[in-house]
TrEMBL record:
Residues 1-46 are annotated as: Disordered. Its main location: membrane. InterPro entries: AA_transpt_TM (IPR013057). It comes from Kalanchoe fedtschenkoi. This is Amino acid transporter transmembrane domain-containing protein. One of its GO terms (cellular component) is membrane.
């Protein structure tokens, strides 16, 4: 066979334009110059090292072969030649990219276990044993699958990382429609969660003070609203940490405290004598329509227990990603560990709490029930430790759920000024957001109804949109099982969202804005 000249062989890889020189960014990543549209079409299945194959290397001499092999290893270490926006180096989510599987487990666990677990027995009081356990099980595996979808879609397009949920929605639904569909529920979920955390955290701090202080308390203690303000101030102080990776330690503390207090509340409840009038029938309502709305509100609370998918892409964006070591591998490893512990927390709290209190469960959840029914039976020190763990968990969860909002504020500022936020501007944004959440919490001082509405309105973020995104980006063949499965699952999630939102609105209207939480017995 006639051998070709080396010059001819070396000119082969010059065709793909995706291998243009990279531009280093302040974040330490590398981003190439934009390729043309035609080049993108022609290089859809191309990778930086695809041209360096054994067939290509076989006729080349040893020195040239060694050079190209070394070049292949270098490209695999450098990465996908990902196109990065230099502005990302100024924003809290993408400012640091040294995350790993441990950080992913901490963040996912902190976001997945929290005060919403305390409300699951309330949902069971609306649904009963059968529908409660069934809905909780289905929701868990459904959201675990959509979590896997989001992890895989983070780098679904070669050379592009979708660092935020809204960015992936824009890639799937279009620039304008993606913003309309994803921006409101994700911001609403973050802000609503922050408001609920202020409510639960402030009330728990008040109870902790009452337990520790006991009869020696002053005659003029802080009011509930003042405790909300104390908790909000602590949240604002902790929110001064600059980026998502910098709060990994807080997420670890939040995850550990959440596991401990969720275990303590159901163990303490199960070990105490049950109330004599306990019943496991769903709460009775004066009419069938009222019963239906209560059941829908209960399902909304179950859906709200699995919020956190609006943070998946953001957490994955904090990790380095290369062609040889893509970010989805450590992300999925950490997420699997986190959701194993999440299941170990949510299911015992829901089942154990409903077994202990039945439909006598107060609207504030199992922590309220523990204090109302057994505050005199449980040692004060043990009860105080439980409430203190709840406070630590709420403080940590506030940080991770507020980070996307901080990122949005700073993105708007940097896009207009073309410079990073100063320390004072960043602090101003976070103080403003903290007190806005405080005022919303004061105006809406109830929790279980808010949880049902939050679960309904934000359900598409967890259960519906990921299925649509998979179908639109991966484009499975039409009318195949894969196509029917994802489109059907997505539309089912939208239908549930509408139904649960109606149930949550009915519950808020029916409450008359007069629900009080954590009332002592």
């Amino acid at each position: 066979m006639e051998e070709r000249p080396e010059a001819e062989l070396i000119s082969i890889p010059a065709t793909p334009r995706a291998s243009t020189p990279e531009i280093p960014t302040p974040s330490g990543q590398r981003s190439p110059r934009p390729a043309t549209r035609d080049a993108n079409k022609s290089s859809a299945g191309w990778t930086p090292t695809s041209f360096i194959s054994p067939r290509f290397l076989s006729p080349i001499g040893t020195p040239m072969k060694r050079v190209l092999v070394n070049m292949k290893g270098y490209l695999e270490e450098v990465g996908h030649l990902t196109k990065l926006n230099p502005q990302d180096a100024w924003l809290p989510i993408t400012e640091s990219r040294n995350g790993n599987a441990h950080y992913a487990a901490f963040h996912n666990l902190n976001a997945g276990v929290g005060f919403q677990a305390l409300l699951l027995p309330v949902a069971f009081s609306f649904l009963g044993w059968s529908w409660g356990v069934l809905s909780l099980t289905i929701a868990y595996f459904w959201q675990l699958y959509t979590l896997w979808i989001l992890v895989q879609l983070h780098e679904a397009v070669p050379g592009k990382r979708y660092n935020r949920y809204v960015e992936l929605a824009q890639a799937a639904f279009g620039e304008r429609l993606g913003v309309w569909l994803a921006l409101f529920p994700t911001v609403y979920l973050s802000a609503g969660t922050a408001t609920a955390l202020i409510l639960i955290g402030g009330e728990t701090m008040k109870l902790f003070f009452q337990i520790v202080c006991g009869p020696t308390c002053s005659s003029n203690p802080l009011t509930t609203v003042e405790w909300y303000l104390v908790f909000t101030s602590l949240c604002i102080v902790l929110s001064q940490l600059p980026n998502l990776n910098s709060i990994a330690g807080l997420s670890l503390i939040g995850a550990i405290t959440a596991i401990f207090y969720s275990t303590m509340v159901w163990v303490l409840s199960v070990n105490q004598a049950r109330p004599p009038t306990v019943s496991y029938e769903p709460i009775s309502a004066p009419s069938f329509s009222a019963s239906a709305f209560m059941a829908l509100n209960g399902l909304g609370i179950v859906a709200f227990a699995f919020r956190g998918h609006n943070l998946v892409l953001e957490i994955q964006a904090t990790m380095p990603s290369t062609f040889k070591h893509p970010a989805h591998v450590p992300m999925w490893r950490g997420a699997k560990v986190a959701y194993f512990f999440i299941a170990m927390c949510l299911f015992p709290v829901a089942i154990g709490g409903f077994w202990a209190y039945g439909n006598l469960m107060p609207s504030g959840g199992i922590l309220n029930a523990l204090y109302a029914f057994h505050s005199h039976d449980i040692p004060r020190g043990l009860l105080a430790i439980t409430f203190l763990l709840v406070v630590f968990s709420c403080l940590s969860s506030f940080q991770i759920y507020s980070m996307p909002v901080f990122d949005s504020f700073e993105a708007g500022y940097t896009s207009r000024t073309n410079r990073p936020c100063s320390v004072w501007v960043r602090s101003g944004f976070r103080v403003f957001y903290g007190f806005i959440s405080f005022f919303i919490g004061v105006a809406l001082p109830f929790l279980s109804s808010l949880a049902g509405l939050l679960g309904g309105l934000t359900l598409p973020v967890t259960f519906a949109y990921p299925c649509f995104m998979w179908a639109l980006i991966k484009k499975p063949p039409r009318y195949t099982f894969n196509w029917y499965f994802h489109w059907g699952l997505g539309w089912l999630g939208v239908a549930f969202s509408l139904a649960f939102s109606i149930g949550g609105i009915w519950s808020i209207v029916n409450s008359g804005l007069k629900l009080k939480f954590f009332k002592p017995a």
